[in-house]
């Protein structure tokens, strides 16, 4: 079922209400901090950063990723439909003196940017909210504003996180037997979703309990193992999230 404008309004209202507590609920725990650091590690290694580069982060949320990426000197534009989330992002940028991070309000299916504007586009913690029949619309719009030959990097929930943990989560705790297919990215969905783009890299991030393990083994060792495991075909989907890099064809 396709999301309507009223669905968008409900989503905007929900995140407006949650904005002040958003980071505290997700990224202050040991597991949350570890996951956030893993996301940034992947992004910083996949995205061309530094002065002169222009990056789009959509949705920007509270600016968690935008601010961190902008510290490289790249210009990072964060777009989001929630005004309150953007207020949090602007406050975070001010606190961190992130002068290269800028935020605008806008929808992911009608971005306020010209074609071929950005050197990279990232979309994290979002596609689990988008119905399957609408996901291609967002991919097309994100690709439109991306320069030819550059990369779109998108994060999805994995349907096989922790093996039996995923089944427990959707079939028993949430009582949504069909939820896995709608919320998560299955391997057979990748080619159709990124049609017209070249899928160049895939990486799973965040194994169960890896945050707690990092307090014993150290962050660097645990992070290296987590990302090594996440690159293994057939095993990466046991991670919490799957990050896909897809390259826009170069101009003729």
Descriptive labels:
single chain, 252 residues, alpha/beta, Rossmann fold, seven-stranded mixed sheet, 11 helices, 7 strands, globular
Describe it:
The structure is a single chain. This protein has 252 residues and is an alpha/beta fold. The chain is 42% helix and 19% strand. The protein has 11 helices and 7 strands. Strand 2, helix 5 (83-95) and strand 3 (101-105) form a beta-alpha-beta unit. The longest helix has 17 residues, at 30-46. The chain is globular, with a radius of gyration of 17 Å. The mean pLDDT is 90.
Architecture blueprint of SSEs:
Blueprint: H1 5-18, H2 22-27, H3 30-46, E1 54-57, H4 64-70, E2 75-80, H5 83-95, E3 101-105, E4 118-123, H6 135-144, E5 146-157, H7 164-173, H8 179-183, H9 190-193, E6 198-205, H10 210-217, H11 219-230, E7 241-247
Parallel strand pairs: 1-2, 1-4, 2-3, 4-5
Antiparallel strand pairs: 5-7, 6-7
Shape: globular
Q: What percent strand?
A: 15-25%
The CATH class is Alpha Beta
CATH architecture: 3-Layer(aba) Sandwich
What oligomeric assembly is this protein in?
single chain
Strand order of the largest sheet: 3-2-1-4-5-7-6
Kindly state the number of beta strands: 7
Number of domains: 1
Q: Which bin fits the share of residues in helices? A: 40-55%
Rg calc: 17 Å
Question: How many H/I helices?
Answer: 11
Helices and strands, in order, run as HHHEHEHEEHEHHHEHHE
What is the third-level CATH name, the topology? Answer: Rossmann fold
Summed up:
This protein has eleven helices and seven strands.
